[in-house]
Each structure stands twice: as structure tokens, then as C-alpha cells.
Design a protein that fits this description.
Belongs to the metallo-dependent hydrolases superfamily. ATZ/TRZ family. The protein is an alpha/beta fold. The protein has helices at residues 52-58, 99-112, 116-132, 147-155, 178-195, 218-231, 243-253, 257-264, 281-290, 298-304, 308-311, 314-320, 339-354, 362-369, 371-376, 410-416, 444-462; strands at residues 13-25, 33-42, 45-51, 59-66, 70-74, 76-81, 135-140, 160-163, 204-206, 208-212, 235-239, 271-275, 293-296, 324-326, 394-398, 423-428, 431-435, 438-439. Strands 1, 2, 3, 4, 5, 15, 16, 17 and 18 form a 9-stranded mixed beta sheet that branches. Helix 3 (116-132) crosses helix 17 and helix 8 runs parallel beside helix 9. The longest helix has 19 residues, at 444-462. The relative contact order is 0.16.
Length: 473
Amino acid sequence: MDKHGSAAGQGPQEVDLVIHGGWIVTMDDRRRVFRDGALAVRGDTIVAVGPSAEIRAAWRGRETIDGSRWVLTPGFANGHVHITGEPITRGQVPDDAGWRANVFDWLIPTYLAQTPDDERLAASLCAVEMLRTGTTSFVEAGTILDLDGVVEALSAIGIRGRLGQWVQDRAFAPDEDQARLTDVAVAKLAAQFERYPVRGNALLTGWASLVGHNTATDALWQAAADLAREHGGGISAHMSPDPADADFFLATTGKRPIAHLAALGVLGPTVSLTHAIHLDAEEVAILAETGTGVTHCPMTAMKGGYGASAVGLFPEMQAAGVRIGLGTDGNNNGNAADIMRAGYVMAGLFKDARRDGTLFPAHEVLESLTLKGAAAAGLAGVTGAIAPGYKADFVAHDRDRPEWVPLLNVVNQLVWSADGRGVHSVWVAGRRVVDTYCMTTIDEKRLFAEVEAAAPGLIARSGLPVPQVWPVL
């Protein structure tokens, strides 16, 4: 094979798809950007990338597309998103709800009031929003109740995801049976890894998506780590968006959360901790030493007043080599599921907080959106780049829009100018799931109508209002 992935000395080989003539931001090992680039796809895999003239001479597509209108990037990875509950109560939680009120007074009652149909609708809506804004893979945040129903709904849509049922086990009431709670939680983890195995080409697989905070006992953490290693999966969990997590661990273990998890032997490259705002320098060093990742949800931090810009050690994590991915969290926390918006905020938040324009430059943010996010989902070397051997998960951004004119610095413009509204088309595993701003796999208008009809019932069952500052007549 030559440097573009084609067979040297042969005539054009037939592939399923060739796209030519566009800008391609490859995110390959050399971070090459082609101004007039092309890619070739066979089945679900990219087989060649390079200058248009060379690729078209070596490969003949059963379908050939002129991509001169587009900037092609790898599909983005959303490392932490609540795909049920919140998508169909979008905007309900008031701005002045801090972390505790947001979680305990608003979000949990909403989750518990869902029906299985609500979950399927919410997951479908969230997946559509992610795909329509360039996200091709995600890690669910750990609050799914009806996992089988959600997987069934998502299977029809065509997104790549890592999912797990709501799992926690700590007994907070004196009459709860701690051993039984742990057994039930571990059984849930084992069952979802068995039903939705990670190995193979399945788009949707099981994951150890722990609620985290102080809700998991040491036994559950250790069982999750063992199961993840056995099945080739990973662990995600909320940790330290608020000082309460550190206070709990210090009071009960004598160690801060990251130090305690390290002592348990559960940290490592297959673990991603979400938020990780209220850490100290020792915890940052432990994350770097163990290769544990962090998923930063900057939009949630801003809306919830978590203190990321005031106390977050994200620049120190970046300098230490901690893998930082990005998440949108929930629609009531982090606004839209458009991960490009999270990239924009990440690029600016700490520049302003530290008065240091060198922090989180656009090219590093793009790595968090692609390669680092893919690694957090166990997809390193599988997605996150447009390169031979990678899955054909990629996004076509429409240059025929004002934010792309003129096109001078494609990386800067992806982060600082563009957002998900400019996503024209999306491919996942070689399948075009978004075409000219519309889903190809689901009737969007019908879905939107069903969500509109379902939302009032869910809100009524939760017993919560929809607060309005101004009169709505």
C-alpha cells in the first residue's frame, strides 16, 4: 500500500464512496490538512485519504461526490451526555438553581417520572440533535432506566454510543441492605456488558456508566473495573463538580476522591471522570500518572455556577498530559447537545479566567473533540481521524455559509466561527445518516411532534413547574 492507502502499481480500485475536492482536516498522526482533498470508503472503513488528483487516479467510487462545498472533519465525540429525561424537558430548570438544587430538586424527580416511551423519545431526540451537529459517537452519562428500550430506539438512528443503565449502590438509609444493593448493581453491569458486547463492530455497546459522586461503594467501583477489563469496556462517572464530593471522601476515607480511587486500583486509561472541577494538585498528578481521563462539560459549569473558571485546574491537567475530552451533559444543564459549542467555550474559558491567551488553542480543542473523545469511548485508532483503517465516521461542514467565508485558517474557524448548525451531512460507519441538514434514518417531523406531545405529561408527573420570569400569554 502507498502513503494514501492504495495498492501501488495497479489501476483504479473500486470502492463504495469517493468524496473529492473539499478541505479535509484529517487529525491523522501528522495532523495533515488537505485544501483539495479526497477520501475513499469501502464498507464501513476509510481506505484512502490524500490529494484529490491522487485519490481519484487510484480509486473509483460506486458513488462519487463533489465535496468542494465542504470541510470534512472526523465525527466528533461527546464524552458525557444524558440522553434521557432532560432532552424532553429542555429549558425547564431555572437559571438560579445551583448544583444541589439542580440535581436533587429538578433533575432526579424528572428522571424518576419518565415512562419507557419517554426515554425512547428523549434518546431519539438527543441522538438526532447530536448527529445533526456533527457528533457521531457518545458516552451516556449513566441515568438510563430502560436500557433495552433506549438501545432499540437508537439502533434505528445509526449513531455510535456507549451506554449503561443507572447504576449506584450505596445505602444511605439505615434500613437498606448494603450487600443486596451492591449485588444488584454489579449484576446490572455484568448483564449489560453481556447483552451489548464491546468487542466487534456494534455501534451501540455496554459501558460501566456509574452515577459516581458518593453513590458507589468501593466494592462497586472494583467490580466495575474488573468487568470493564474483562469485556474490553470502560468506566465513566461524575466526580467533583462541587466540593461536596471531596468533603464526603475526606470524611469517610481520609483521602480526596481521586486519591481514594487510585488506592482502590480502579483508575487508568479506560476511566473517564466527568466534571473534575474541585480537585487539588495531588489529584491532578494522580490522573496524569494513571492515564485516567477527564470529561470537561464547560457549558454545564457555566450554567450551574460550578466554579470551573475560578478553581478548575484544567490548564494544569492539560500541561500534565491528562486526557481531556468534552461533553455537553444534559439539556437542562449544558444547553444544546451541540459539542462544537462546548469546544468554543473550552477554547475561551481559561484564556479569560487566567488572562493567558495561550491556553487551549483551537488545535488542542479539536483534539479533545475528536481523538481524545474517541479514546474516552474506547475508540482510539477506530474513530477520531480521517485516515486509512479508521471507521468512516466523518462530518461535512457547509462552506456555503457566512461563518466560513473567507476560509483562511480552517482549524481556527472550526472552533471560533463555526458550530453545529453548519453541519451539512454526516456519515457513521460509511452510512450517510444526515444528508443536506436532514436525517435519513428517522422521520424528524414525526419525532418532534411526539416529543412536543409527551413533554407536558412528563412534567406533570414530576410535579414540577416550568418557571417563567415574564408572563406568557
